[in-house]
Amino acid sequence: MVVFNSLLGAAVFSVVGVLAVPSVGTNLITRAGTPGSEGMHDGFFYSWWTDGGATATYTNEPEGQFSITWGSGGNLLGGKGWNPGSHTRVMSYTGTYQATGNSYLAVWGWTRDPLIEYYIIEHFGSYNPSIGFMSKGTVTTDGSVYDMGVRFRSSGLSLFTQFYSVRRDKRTTGTVDLGAHFKAWEASGMRLGASHQFQILVCEGYFSSGSCNMTVSEGGSTGPVTTTPEAERASLDPIPAADLEALAR
């Protein structure tokens, strides 16, 4: 799922269109089809985007809390966090997330120089986003194994890269050591841009239905980190039985 945000610069705007940017402090009103917007709310940066294909309601709650409900159809994404992001932030979150169909609960952000969109996916619906990306190995952090990977995307005349960490043990409450993921990506040849744009926890839906009510905060305890790049991981994987039989013949 591709969403270009208005913070990414006029060059991107001219190709793919932009979201309306409200004044700082804008608070969205709960109603069917909440229009896309972004800004500051109660000390946190928020962003909300929808293509209008579904009845979707986004609400800014106190501090780091937000809620979304959506019906089937369309593409939508929204949440809260920080702008700019950080290479070393530890993010904690808690709440409820339920979805039928293709959906993510994830940390989402962008960097410049080069332009990189990234996801650290904590929960997903019917579609596993690790299917189809270029595998870059795994990182074990925050109590689970994450599959790392890369996709190359285009929108109009703009080309960009997506980085992923996809958690194998899904959860709706936890702590994400973003720095651990970023270091693991770099060790696997996935280098983020020099400067961060926003960095937020989001719920995203694509022709699905669901709801989420999440609260995000900064800080939290993290555990040990182990990175296994793809080449090394392949050497550690057991040889399939069929291949063993072929070798024996």
From TrEMBL:
Residues 32-217 form the GH11 domain. InterPro entries: ConA-like_dom_sf, GH11/12, GH11_AS_1, GH11_dom, Glyco_hydro_11. Residues 218-229 have a biased composition (Polar residues). Pathway: Glycan degradation; xylan degradation. It comes from Candolleomyces eurysporus. PROSITE patterns: GH11_1 (PS00776), GH11_3 (PS51761). GO terms for biological process: xylan catabolic process. Residues 218-242 are annotated as: Disordered. It catalyses: Endohydrolysis of (1->4)-beta-D-xylosidic linkages in xylans. This is Endo-1,4-beta-xylanase.
